[in-house]
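Dock NDP; give full complex structure.
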Amino acid sequence: MSAKPMTVSYNCREQLCVESAPGPGAIVIFGASGDLTKRKLLPAIYALFERNLLPEKFAVIGVARTEMSNEDFQEEVREAMLVNGDTVTEEFLHRFSYVAGQYTEADTFARLQTELERVSEVHGTEGNALFYLAMPPTMFEPIVKGLAEQGLLEEEEAWARVIIEKPFGHDLESAVALDKSLKRYIKESQTYRIDHYLGKETVQNILMLRFANSIFEPLWNHTYIEKVEITVAEELGVEKRAGYYDKAGALRDMFQNHMVQMLSLIAMEPPAVFEADAYRDEIAKLISSIRPLEGQDLGNISVRGQYVESVDSDRPAAGYRKEEGVDPRSQTETYVALKLFIDNWRWRGVPFYMRTGKRLPKKSSEIAITFKPIPHSIFKPIRPKDFNQNVLLLRMQPHEGMGLSIEVKAPGSKLCVNTLDMDFSYSDFMQGEDIPDAYERLILDALLGDQTLFVRNDTVEASWQLFMPLIRAWDANLENVPLCFYPAFSEGPKETNEILEGGSLQWRKI
Ligand SMILES: NC(=O)C1=CN([C@@H]2O[C@H](COP(=O)(O)OP(=O)(O)OC[C@H]3O[C@@H](n4cnc5c(N)ncnc54)[C@H](OP(=O)(O)O)[C@@H]3O)[C@@H](O)[C@H]2O)C=CC1
Ligand SMILES: O=C1O[C@H](COP(=O)(O)O)[C@@H](O)[C@H](O)[C@H]1O
């Protein structure tokens, strides 16, 4: 039985809900010719502009090696917006300019400084600058070094902040080394490590749901929760990113960062206040409470998969090894499933089943919390079958929202039971407005100097530490952790069921 859409009454007229624009500042995008810039950053900047959430005095400077004039870059911006059906105004476009150059040459940073001075004068950005490194990770250090040597990271009269994209390092050792070398040039207070999942409305809502209501938290522990299932499924394949992805794979691309952050929000203890360090302290504590993989039988708790050619003639797709730019003998995983436990008082014995992959049946990210069965049924004589267990479903995307399944009496004279799926969609809540994209929220926070939703280095390292035994076992091709194959658009490798108590349970259908 599915309920009609719930009536949503939305009352957000409080002061706290009023968003305000940051003070003057320039946004400098390194990697301005790249995929992330076009698909995510430019639309996010435009959306902030439309919502009057960019500084009144702002400018955007693109930097990359590709030769382009300011006009060419403005044309790229215009085209990137047209893809989304947005026609930008000249008022918006004339704030954009471009600096071409190599990151190893001091001259690039000298010309960037000249451009920053110009926009300060013309657009009133007052020397404040947010540097967004939308770049392959190998370039993070050279760029930060170049900025520092040019004096662009000094904060005497203006602020300077750096957004660093993921992945932060390739493993624990490289993440530690990267952090050490960046710290030579920037302070932690200037470092904004972005994990765009933390900017998603529905991901942030996990905290609100847990800590702004009194009905969930008393049940949020091993006494009442049987298992938690976190799925991030993508329909897309590797697309044009094989150069990066074939070296990274799903564990580094999705698990070490987005999946662990979502797990943390579900499982963390409440911070005393929602402030950057109090909140991030709790995240760090949680990640370090995850049962170490070292010493566990990795074959029982993990599956790595790679997609092969689709077997569905209506939905043809090449196998991963045939994708452009992928090594034809690639061992890179495009799918990972893991069973994790959190060794603390609250979560003793509760399995967290987690999976993510590319070329799965559809795009779908959700967290399903299954509550334990009722301790005793008073309805046994009339209903010998067990009741369905309650499930709280948090849908991250698409159709953001949440659902709760409960057992109810079906109308009629008999005592018949039905499962009622109560469903709530964010789109109803938003009354026709679009849900802001994650990058909008995070760019805005960085302009405001709020680090709460950015990842602190200790949590990055704790997460790498957790996965190192798995990475080592995969690198060594140990027999108990084989690469399993799944047809594109299937539910993933069949071996995934094995980690659900030897196949006695089932994953939710994607
Ligand atoms: N694309 C996405 O969906 C997502 C990306 N990210 C992260 O964002 C960052 C950027 O990603 P994306 O835009 O896809 O990357 P791209 O591969 O599109 O690269 C971005 C730009 O970097 C420059 N570049 C590429 N290789 C080199 C190199 N070896 N040396 C110097 N410059 C180089 C190129 O510009 P030019 O040649 O003009 O200098 C390119 O336009 C990465 O860290 C990625 O992990 C995170 C989440 C999602
Ligand atoms: O960080 C990444 O995320 C995207 C998926 O993000 P979503 O917001 O569309 O869910 C993924 O496709 C990409 O490989 C990864 O680098």
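Observed: Residues 2-6 have pLDDT under 50 and may be disordered.
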